Amino acid sequence: KETKDQFFIDAGQKHFGTTMCKSCGMIYTASSPEDEMQHAHYHHRFLEGIKYVGWKRERVVAEFWDGKIVLVLPRDPSYALRKVEDVQELVDHELGFQKVVPKCSNKTKTFLFISDEKRVVGCLIAEPIKQAFRVLSKECSRAWQCSDVPEPAICGISRIWVFRLKRRKRIARRLVDTVRNCFMFGCFLSTNEIAFSDPTPDGKLFATKYCNT
Ligand code: ACO
Ligand code: ZN
């Protein structure tokens, strides 16, 4: 039994002949020149994209031992908006979204989690909404279904993303906590007042856990 476990552990780490870059998180075959080329390209673009040089006027809305959360609003200086665009492009690429969706509305609020290595390692895009359809999860089933009855909601989360190498450190949780606190001045939104749009499998696992605790 022990040898079997060991086998799986080894296999997992080596990804059957593939390597994971410790900087950008891409998994690729180091022995394939094509893969290496693709990695070199992605690596550079990704690290440029998440680089955060620090802004003269940044809106810090939360601070932690391992980083901080900065809020970017639609009328902010162009360097801030450009950073948000770059990060959104990386996120959309990872989520497999087609080319950038219409420009941010003037009500979009973007929350960036900045690590103490000065990188954008988390991003949450929130918009005001009026209603949402609750996801009905059936026990013992992997199927998800939405109710037909709209329920009032206030804040829609259209994107939530955490850098692959920084996941499961509660960064997403801290981003959502911060949105609930900052989205509407003077009140802390309940989990019923926020809604995740079109969640991915990762997004569903996170949202289910988040909303039940
Ligand atoms: N599998 C199972 N449980 C999970 C997962 C997962 N992949 N991710 C989060 N959870 C649960 C866990 O219970 C976790 O607590 P624990 O680590 O103590 O067990 C809890 O949620 C809190 O997780 P966080 O650490 O706060 O989440 P993280 O910072 O890792 O980010 C996220 C989660 C944003 C979904 C990340 O996995 C990600 O960026 N994935 C790729 C992009 C994506 O799919 N985003 C969602 C798109 S949907 C939308 O944008 C509306
Ligand atoms: Zn890399």
TrEMBL record:
Span of domain N-acetyltransferase ESCO acetyl-transferase: 151-213
Residue intervals passing through the bilayer: none
Keyword terms, alphabetized: Acyltransferase, Cell cycle, Metal-binding, Nucleus, Transferase, Zinc, Zinc-finger
GO molecular function (one): L-lysine N-acetyltransferase activity, acting on acetyl phosphate as donor
Subcellular localization(s) per the UniProt record: Nucleus
Domain of life per record: Eukaryota
Family: Belongs to the acetyltransferase family. ECO subfamily.
Listed name of the protein: Establishment of sister chromatid cohesion N-acetyltransferase 2
Organism: Jaculus jaculus (Lesser Egyptian jerboa)
